[in-house]
């Protein structure tokens, strides 16, 4: 790849071909109720949304492919599978009024994709949102101005359209810092050029050093910059990388990184119920078709929390560790998997009559291997 500067590189012909395949693969957008499934190519919906925004007077600086899909284009065998197609529209959002224009533009494009014969005039934007939008987020403050519209896909491969004017931090680790600029490729599609391989397509590493980030991706290394800026979800992503055989690029820095991430996780999600909801949501979105990896992930997360949490009181820490362990046991129970009995801890909860006059709690006992049954369950005394 020819070098532009330290942040940028040009994709080679093979990478451009992979990118073309990703943008040209039909992605079903599943409708709720009686609404039909829309079979869309990402490139078509991207071009349509960009054109509508520009027609409505919103400046679109560029369009980029972001995250795990961009990493897949650059290094196909990187140990992580891509789920969502994460598209970033760089836009100007001087006020909150532009958010409404963006929403109406996206929903209008979806309306245009409905099958022939549908009376579009009778379908409102609110109805289209209810039928096809999985998630909608809006953030507008001094440091962050962006919105997200995630289009529904029952297999978890959501098409995520993100409209960014300002974003304080655009990556967590170097291996997910890549953004591929799509504009030249989109122009060739609009002009119906068949020689897309000849296009110069640039990729940028938000990590700041493209070659270093590429080495981390090739050799499955974990590195970042300014870890204190990583939000609470970084802990979950870090544990996911560990499960996929990534390892720290620097053993001397990793303990500090883990402590930062644990602290931020508990700042952003201080309540154990919030923590559980966040973890369950992460499992649902990132382990589709990988059910057997969930237990390993949860126990890896538990180990990191146990080793590197310094910001909690003892009972708060135990609550979180117990919650994660119970989730792991439930995963085993659902899959009828027997864990390694060298490290089995069984949980039992007192019967109601024993806890009538005290707060409910979980007790921990470690059982000898010979006592562990050939199924996972909860023991009540």
From TrEMBL:
<keyword id="KW-0808">Transferase</keyword>
<dbReference type="GO" id="GO:1990817">
    <property type="term" value="F:poly(A) RNA polymerase activity"/>
</dbReference>
<dbReference type="Pfam" id="PF07984">
    <property type="entry name" value="NTP_transf_7"/>
</dbReference>
<dbReference type="GO" id="GO:0003723">
    <property type="term" value="F:RNA binding"/>
</dbReference>
<comment type="similarity">
    <text>Belongs to the TENT family.</text>
</comment>
<dbReference type="GO" id="GO:0048255">
    <property type="term" value="P:mRNA stabilization"/>
</dbReference>
<protein>
    <recommendedName>
        <fullName>polynucleotide adenylyltransferase</fullName>
        <ecNumber>2.7.7.19</ecNumber>
    </recommendedName>
</protein>
<dbReference type="InterPro" id="IPR012937">
    <property type="entry name" value="TET5"/>
</dbReference>
């Amino acid at each position: 790849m020819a070098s532009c500067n330290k942040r940028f590189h040009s994709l080679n012909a093979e990478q451009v071909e992979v990118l073309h395949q990703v943008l040209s693969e039909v992605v079903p957008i599943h409708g709720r109720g009686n609404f039909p499934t829309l079979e869309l190519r990402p490139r078509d919906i991207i071009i349509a949304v960009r054109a509508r925004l520009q027609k409505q007077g919103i400046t679109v600086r560029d369009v980029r492919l972001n995250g795990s899909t961009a990493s897949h284009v650059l290094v196909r065998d990187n140990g992580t599978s891509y789920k969502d197609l994460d598209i970033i529209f760089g836009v100007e959002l001087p006020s909150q009024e532009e958010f409404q224009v963006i929403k109406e533009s996206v929903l209008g494009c979806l309306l245009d994709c409905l099958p022939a014969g549908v009376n579009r005039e009778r379908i409102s934007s609110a109805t289209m949102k209810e039928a096809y939008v999985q998630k909608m987020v809006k953030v507008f403050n001094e440091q962050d101005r962006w919105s997200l519209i995630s289009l529904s896909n029952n297999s978890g491969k959501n098409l995520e359209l993100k409209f960014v004017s300002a974003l304080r931090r655009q990556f967590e680790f170097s291996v997910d810092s890549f953004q591929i600029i799509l504009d030249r490729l989109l122009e060739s599609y609009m002009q119906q050029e068949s020689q897309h391989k000849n296009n110069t397509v640039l990729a940028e590493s938000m990590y700041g050093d493209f070659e270093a980030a590429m080495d981390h991706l090739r050799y499955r290394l974990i590195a970042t910059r300014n870890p204190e800026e990583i939000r609470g979800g970084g802990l979950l992503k870090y544990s996911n990388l560990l499960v996929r055989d990534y390892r720290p690029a620097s053993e001397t820095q990793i303990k500090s990184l883990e402590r930062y991430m644990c602290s931020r996780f508990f700042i952003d999600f201080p309540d154990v119920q919030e923590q559980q909801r966040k973890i369950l949501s992460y499992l649902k979105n990132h382990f589709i078709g990988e059910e057997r990896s969930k237990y390993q992930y949860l126990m890896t997360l538990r180990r990191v929390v146990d080793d590197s949490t310094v910001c909690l009181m003892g009972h708060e820490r135990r609550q979180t560790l117990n919650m994660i362990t119970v989730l792991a046991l439930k995963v085993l129970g659902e899959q009828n998997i027997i864990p390694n009995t060298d490290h089995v801890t069984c949980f039992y909860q007192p019967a109601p009559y024993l806890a009538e006059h005290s707060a409910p709690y979980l007790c921990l006992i470690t059982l000898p291997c010979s006592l562990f049954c050939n199924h996972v369950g909860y023991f009540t005394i």
